[in-house]
Structure formats: C-alpha cells, structure tokens
Amino acid sequence: MQRRTVLALSTIVPVGLAAGAWATVGANAATETDLSESSIASFPTTIALPNGWAPEGIAISGIYAFLGSRATGSVYKANLATGAGEVIYTGPGTPSNGLKIDSRGRAFIAGNTGGDIRVISIKTGALLASYQVTAAGASFLNDVVLAFGAAWVTDSFNATLYKLPIASDGTLPTSAAGIVALPLTGITITSGTVNLNGITTTPDGKSLLVVQSNTGLLFKVNPTTGAATQVNLGGVSVINGDGLLHEGCTLYVVQNRSNAVEVFTLNSAGTTGTLNTTITSAAFAIPTTVASLGNRLYIVNGKLTTAISATEPYNFIAITKP
Prior knowledge:
Blueprint: E1 6-9, H1 37-40, E2 46-49, E3 55-61, E4 64-69, E5 75-79, E6 85-89, E7 99-101, E8 106-110, E9 116-121, E10 127-132, E11 141-147, E12 150-155, E13 160-165, E14 180-183, E15 196-201, E16 208-212, E17 217-221, E18 228-230, E19 241-247, E20 250-255, E21 260-266, E22 273-281, E23 287-293, E24 296-301, E25 314-320
Parallel strand pairs: 1-22
Antiparallel strand pairs: 2-25, 3-4, 4-5, 5-6, 7-8, 8-9, 9-10, 11-12, 12-13, 13-14, 15-16, 16-17, 17-18, 19-20, 20-21, 21-22, 23-24, 24-25
C-alpha cells in the first residue's frame, strides 16, 4: 500500500470576470513575451467561461488558454493575464473534448460522440480540416496528444487509438481515409461506460500512456504495435482518471468525479510510478483536465454531473504546482 499525502488547497476566490470582460491585474500584467514567474503570479486564479459552455479540454499557447465546449463544439480563447475571452471558433453542434496545439498554431480537437477530429487555427479560428473517423455514436473520441509525427486520439468506447499523421512539413491527410486506427491489446473494455480517457507520452518519449477511467488503471502503449501493459503504481488506483499531463518524470492525473489530482513520479520508461501527493480543493467542480504554465496548473471545472443549460456558470482555475 502506498501512503497517500493529501495536499488540500484553500478555496480559490473568483475574480468575477464575465465572458469577454477585461480586468486589471496590476502593472506587471504579462504581454505576449512576458511569461516570467512574477508576471504569472499576478494572473487571476479563476477565469469565468460563458454560461452553458460545459468545458472539457484545455491547451495553452503563450498567455492564452483554449477550451472546447461539450455543448456546441466551439472553442473559447481566454487571456490568462486578464481573464478576458472570446469565442474564436463556432462548432458544429456536437462536442469538443480534448485538444492540443502544435507549433504551427493549430488545435487538434477530439469530437466526442460526434466521431470526428477537427483542426482549427488558433490565430483565426478557421476550420482547417475535419475528419469523420467513425459514425456518430459509435465511438467517444476523448483526448489528444501530439507525438511521433501524429495527433493521437483515445476512444473511450473501444480499445483503439486513432492516429492522424502530420507530415514533417505540417501537411495533414486530405480525408478521413488517412486516419489510422490502432487496435490495442492488453486492455479490457467495458461497454456502456467511459474506458480509455487521457493520453500523454512516457518521460523518455518512446511510448504513450493512457488512463482507463472505469478501472483506475494506467497503461503504457507501444505506438507501433498497440501492445498495452499496465503501469505499476504500487497498488494506487487512478479511478475516474481523465486528463494526463507529464513534465519530466512528474505525471499529473486529473480524477474528475473524485475531485482530485494525483501526482506521481514515473521512471523514465513509464513502467512504474510512485504517488507523491493528492491535490484536493473546494474549488474543484468535477475537473476534467489540466494544462501547465510556469509554476501553475490550470484545471478545467467540467461539472460532468451537472446538466448542461444555457444559464449554468463554468470556469477554470489556477493552482500552484505542489
């Protein structure tokens, strides 16, 4: 049994920013190039999203965070220094789940039960590509990682990863026929629930890591063969595991309905991990995923157990890394 050290965070005081509103954060407010720790420390710790947004994924580029909507599939751009924001992409009416941004300023978006993968420009909001990978409802395309010359997407209903190849010059497939389905071995899928969820890479950058929400297991996956082996976490469960983030050998596992983030130290190959701490906070509201900027973690409050309505408030919050 691993001894669990619980790091409880005090309630984070909201800044009270309405969507699109600007707030003053002091003379040290960051610019596009000012991402010093002192500037980041002045950023608001709670940023409001539009009512009814129902966020899931988050990615950060510079001082901006980009969050998809489970309600509409749209993408919101939030200034982390001020809390101001705007909708930059209007979705198709089906959800946007996980998203990741490449060096060319493109966001790769998993389409949930819509069965699609979309690519947009974070600069213009233009839809650059859309791939109908499966029939709507046949899959649950959940989270994304960019690795090994591709965007990799988990399917929460099936033991499959979808690989969207990205050529060295940035060229994308011209149609869904270019998307590769990689069947996984070594993982048992339970129908009617969320299985595979968050995805990242191992510290050595040679393999993938995926979390299985319903079993609380973490798996290392060979990106060539699809062979999956369970990561030895010393008996610690990552039940309700959602978004994953690794920085060096530190792995953050967001546990949505557990309202917690577990922090592990992995070995380089990602075959074993030791629990360091469990972060809890009264400000968590069924968190779905996490992104990093400086010494901060940005946590998305997805409220997955709350019915989506046009009047329901949503936000994402910042906490200091333990």
